[in-house]
């Protein structure tokens, strides 16, 4: 059930050879108190280099420093993150397999996919919120001659054949954000899904794709270089790392607050003592000034929470994402 073929593995601390088997942990209460007693793997259900991967690695470094042991990142992308999370829920519930889940796993995929091999309410246990970040509306500076969101709307409406907007995949928050934005403004638009921002950005820089409303973390460096122009942020207020960029409301598109957030999860029957130990560590890490600074530089905000707060967040957002999926017309098998 735990197929590792094609998985990208990277070791954060020594002591594990890529592809080596990870022993099963079946410890007593004393062993639970000593967790981690062996290698901990964090499954990132998206490709290397994206926002989830980058931010998970920062947290994994700090967890290793606080809790000891060897921590390994596994990139297991595919099916909107479903493949990676399936790997989590099918793993032994011993605290040595963690999933870096996103809003898609809590509030989107169950409405997007006709069939799913796991249930977000039954098959994994939340541990703690880990971060949130806004999406940013961006255009390639050399190919789209606009400076503001209002100018872009006017330009896009007049463009023969309409525009192309990119995202890291059907049903992702960038796809749904782009669909909602273009529909609301009556823009003729074609969605172009990629495997991640690392593929979307080159297409935009070539002029093949005109627009994206994608995770700020993935675009921060390219915005700072001047190759992309940020038009608006989808947060409720201006973002600290881009204080000159208006919110969507300030730019003329009200009621458009969309943040991409994440949480760590473990298999459902993981001992509560381990969940609590990991949750407390993540909450403390989220308050470290050095972590806040590293997150801010890439356009994100570290978060920590109780497991119950993660559940409440996911349930509260489901109606909004369900409506956005309906507007987009997205549906996957």
TrEMBL record:
Cited SUPFAM superfamilies: Periplasmic binding protein-like II
UniProt xrefs under Pfam families: TctC (PF03401)
Q: Record's superkingdom? A: Bacteria
Classification via InterPro entries: BUG, Bug_dom1
Keywords in alphabetical order: Receptor
Q: Which CDD domains match?
A: PBP2_Bug_TTT
Q: Where is the signal peptide?
A: none
Name the family: Belongs to the UPF0065 (bug) family.
PANTHER family, from UniProt? BLR1237 PROTEIN (PTHR42928:SF5), TRICARBOXYLATE-BINDING PROTEIN (PTHR42928)
| Entry protein name | Tripartite-type tricarboxylate transporter receptor subunit TctC
Q: Which organism is it from?
A: Enterovirga rhinocerotis
From which lineage does this chain's organism come?
Bacteria, Pseudomonadati, Pseudomonadota, Alphaproteobacteria, Hyphomicrobiales
């Amino acid at each position: 059930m735990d197929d590792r073929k094609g998985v990208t593995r990277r070791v954060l601390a020594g002591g594990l050879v890529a592809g080596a088997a990870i022993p099963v942990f079946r410890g007593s209460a004393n062993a639970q108190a000593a967790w981690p007693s062996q290698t901990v793997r964090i499954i990132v259900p998206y490709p290397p280099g994206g926002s989830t991967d980058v931010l998970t690695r920062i947290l994994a470094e700090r967890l290793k420093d606080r809790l000891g042991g060897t921590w390994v990142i596994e990139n297991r992308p595919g099916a909107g993150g479903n493949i990676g999370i399936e790997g989590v829920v099918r793993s032994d519930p011993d605290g040595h397999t963690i999933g870096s889940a996103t809003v898609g796993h809590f509030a989107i995929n169950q409405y997007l996919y006709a069939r799913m091999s796991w249930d977000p309410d039954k098959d994994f246990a939340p541990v703690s919120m880990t971060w949130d970040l806004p999406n940013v509306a961006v255009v390639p500076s050399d190919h789209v001659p606009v400076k503001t969101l209002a100018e872009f709307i006017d330009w896009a409406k007049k463009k023969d054949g309409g525009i192309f907007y990119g995202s890291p995949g059907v049903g992702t928050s960038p796809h749904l954000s782009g669909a909602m934005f273009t529909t609301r403004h009556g823009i003729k638009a074609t969605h172009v899904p990629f495997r991640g921002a690392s593929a979307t950005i080159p297409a935009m820089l070539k002029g093949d794709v005109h627009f994206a409303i994608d995770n700020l973390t993935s675009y921060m460096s390219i915005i700072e270089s001047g190759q992309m122009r940020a038009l608006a942020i989808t947060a409720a207020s201006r973002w600290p790392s881009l204080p000159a960029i208006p919110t969507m409301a300030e730019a003329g598109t009200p009621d458009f607050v969309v943040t991409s957030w994440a949480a760590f999860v473990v298999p459902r029957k993981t001992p509560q003592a381990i969940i609590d130990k990991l949750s407390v560590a993540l909450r403390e890490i989220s308050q470290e000034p050095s972590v806040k600074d590293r997150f801010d530089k890439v356009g994100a905000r570290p978060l920590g929470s109780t497991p119950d707060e993660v559940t409440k967040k996911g349930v509260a957002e489901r109606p909004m994402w369900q409506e956005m999926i309906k507007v987009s017309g997205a549906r996957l098998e």
